[in-house]
Amino acid sequence: MKAQPPASHFIDGEYVEDIDGTAFASIYPATGEVIARLHAATPAIVEKAIAAAKRAQPEWAAMSPTVRGRILKRAAEIMRERNRELSELETLDTGKPIQETIVADPTSGADAFEFFGGVAAAALNGDYIPLGGDFAFTKRVPLGVCVGIGAWNYPQQIACWKGAPALVAGNAMVFKPSENTPLGALKIAEILIEAGLPKGLYNVIQGDRTTGPLLVNHRQVAKVSLTGSVETGKKVAGAAASSLKHVTMELGGKSPLIVFDDADLESAIGGAMLGNFYSTGQVCSNGTRVFVQKDIRDRFLSRLKERTEKIVIGDPMDEATQLGPMVSRAQLDKVFSYIEKGKAEGATLLTGGGIPNNVSAEGTYIQPTVFADVTDEMTICREEIFGPVMCVLDFDNEEEVIARANGTEFGLSAGVFTSDLTRAHRVVDQLEAGTLWINTYNLAPVEVPFGGSKQSGFGRENSLAALNHYTELKSVYVAMGKVEAPY
Ligand code: NAD
């Protein structure tokens, strides 16, 4: 099973290699097999990518948004035509089951190209400001060269969610995928060229935490959009601040999901499972603190255990598989260490917590895990685990649960399950998060702004709001008479 690309980087419309860069392997998490061998970008590769972007951007920015949009829409079509091939690559890159990638990864990237391609012609207009004879107008102009840095959980989606608004607004992009999942973004770059994107506008370079700073600190870069952990976010935002670059930070979370006793129980359990086990729990917006009202706690837990134990774990390429491995051995070890902490600190292990017995020993698999009797102070309830580990907590009343839900430094997402409409709105109004759901969880369609508050970041991806983060306003005052100077 190989997924070797022609070279490590894609710059100025073609694959480029520089074997002086640190060699690294791409591993298929289900078997531990090496599926590609690559090299991290050297400083020369970084310069080459930024120079290509810098050269190509002005001409692209001068095209009409309609023409730019048409190219992105064509890229969306190609992605949909090749959905199976791209989904298989995403599964190899991440270990996520094909059952998921076929509906959630390239398709969500294609949605971004389609949405931003479609709105391009109307969404980049400026304003006319009448001033009583004189007037002013505003222009929405691109920033220039934008850098995208991706996490490993949704490599193709992240490459598109950053690329689509950046490109349609007239910018060029240099994208660095996570070193754990280097393959998908290269295909996106290839497809954009095939769709008609001029060379140099979407470049992909490989590397890790030592490569990222070369991009973030580069004086010709105008903006950095990071998807990653809070720790990395602080470093990247700090580095970007030293040269006052624009930044978008899509960071981690420890989001609350609140289930009131009048909720549709099966839906609430389904939402909690999707919000903890989808993508083997490697989703930033997961509702990992599940607050269940006391009087339905026992029913909730017994159905949750029953349904969780039926999850089909196995070969990610088998369409029946519902849960694949973790992305890497390091991530698996981290999750197991949190499970040990949960046990040691007194949480009740309701189900899971071990290695499934029907999978390759070389694969980085873990059972979907639920802890009950979790309290707010426990480590597993305070820190982002980023694996399939659900914490269930009890609560008595609305006021109490809102305070506890907000008692975290994170603020990415939150959810509430209840059949009381006014309560649902009252609660979401008070929850401190950027992305919230009522009676569902983790849906992120491209039409809706996505992003966090507090330490989960700032800026928004998707929707028209994302365009604001890839453009700036130019205000032009136009005088219609003579200048009357007092001297
Ligand atoms: P990470 O922070 O370790 O790495 C993210 C990216 O940043 C990688 O490409 C990495 O190479 C790069 N990087 C690391 N240090 C850097 C530095 N100093 N300068 C520049 N780049 C640097 O995150 P991860 O482990 O790849 O992904 C998991 C994290 O991402 C979780 O915290 C998760 O919640 C978060 N995440 C957030 C969102 C969101 O939209 N809010 C989405 C997905 C993942």
List keywords for this structure.
alpha/beta; binds nicotinamide-adenine-dinucleotide
Biggest beta sheet attributes: 7 strands, mixed
Give the number of helices.
16
Q: Evaluate the radius of gyration.
A: 24 Å
The secondary-structure class comes to alpha/beta
Write structural notes for this entry:
The strands form five sheets. The chain has a seven-stranded mixed β-sheet with strand order 14-15-16-13-12-17-18, sandwiched between helices. Strands 9-8-7-10-11-19 form a six-stranded mixed β-sheet, with helices on both faces. It has a three-stranded antiparallel β-sheet with strand order 5-6-20, with no helix packed on it. The protein is globular. The chain has 16 helices and 20 strands. Helix content is 38%, strand content 20%. The protein has helices at residues 43-61, 65-81, 83-94, 98-104, 106-123, 155-168, 184-194, 212-216, 230-241, 265-277, 297-308, 329-344, 379-382, 398-405, 421-430, 463-468; strands at residues 9-11, 14-16, 23-28, 33-39, 128-131, 134-142, 145-149, 172-176, 202-204, 223-227, 246-250, 256-259, 289-293, 348-351, 369-372, 389-395, 413-417, 435-438, 457-458, 471-478. The protein is α/β, with parallel strands linked by helices.
